[in-house]
Amino acid sequence: SLTGMLPTELGHMKALTLLMVDNNILTGPLPTELSQTFSMQQFFAENNSLTGTIPIEPTTWIDLQIFAVGDNKLTGPIPTEIGTWTSLTLFSTRNNRLTGTVPTELALCSSLRSLDLYNNSLFGTLPTELSQLSALTQFSFQQNNLTGSVNDILCSDTMKTWEVLEGDCLGDERGQVEIECECCTLCCNANGSTCV
Prior knowledge:
By secondary structure, this protein is mainly β. 2% of the residues lie in helices and 26% in strands.
């Protein structure tokens, strides 16, 4: 198992297209120098103990297809610069400590097929612009602090079949629902103790 921090020298590997460091004991932040790996297409760093924020200079990763950093301790917002990752097909930040709102710029990732925001501290409502993601068939957003109705955003296209659509759309013991979702494939209550 790898330990320690991701070296800043990774930024010197301009032709690097794939970095896979899942299931290790890596700590510390994602180095901002990673944004200098101009050819990056797939970045996997799930199940570590990475901290800090998602690098705020991701605009050079225009060919990035997969960004998977689930099961870490990342904080801060999803950077709005994510809208420059127009080749992105999978984005996973599940089981982290991200805050802020879901950025409208995600809608610019027109190739996005899988979006996993499960179990963070995101708040507010989902942006209506997400309805533009016609390729999106897997979306998990439960166990956050999101509220409101997603019916007009995610359920209005009757021709669309969701493989995975998971939210906090199950009422609590008082019948209160955080998210209204008529087409979710899985509904959970706010604390995740019950899902149907």
